[in-house]
Amino acid sequence: MDYVQQNTAELQPVFYTTGKIGDSITKRVYNIPELHEKSLLLSKHGWLRLFSVMASSNSSLYFVHLFTGSKIYLPCLGISSLERPIFAITAPPTSEDCVIFIVSCIEDKVGNDCAKIKFCHRRQSAWSTGIISVEDYRISDVDNLVFAGGFFYCLHQGGHLSAFSVSGHSWTVCRSDRWLGIERCS
């Protein structure tokens, strides 16, 4: 890939939908045409997870490695129908152990706050979907999502924590008075 380099002093390191990456240290902007009009959803293990909406209302979801130009396409997913989705992966997308995870908070038909999760193992052709609701517990929007020790940990607005087990496909809510001193939700 050939990158066009521009010098400018006022830009900060921001990902632009115009396909430009700014570097505040060198004061350079790199124009990367392959990223034009794409949304950056995740950056991890040297890979970018990008989303592109086509004119036909189909969407393209894929990983791209900026240094090699390699692309890994994922099954089709209606991302625009998710409200404030947060993304994470378990391993580099080239790994057979890679699981892609998305969480979005929704309201169910009777007005309860729920979490909508989607996950896909590497090389699967479809997404698994689940709606998580916890009785007498309000699941608020997720601010941060991280994978560790077989769990996707969700830090919600208000500071509460929940976890999704990759192997058990189960959801656990950690009460704030319990999770501060423990390694994992139980």
Automatic annotation (TrEMBL):
Q: Pfam families annotated for this entry? A: Beta-prop_KIB1-4
The record ties this protein, via InterPro entries, to: KIB1-4_b-propeller
PANTHER family under this entry? TRANSMEMBRANE PROTEIN
Protein name as catalogued: KIB1-4 beta-propeller domain-containing protein
Residues of the KIB1-4 beta-propeller domain: 30-170
What broad taxonomic lineage does this protein's source fall under? Eukaryota, Viridiplantae, Streptophyta, Embryophyta, Tracheophyta
Species assigned in the record: Dovyalis caffra
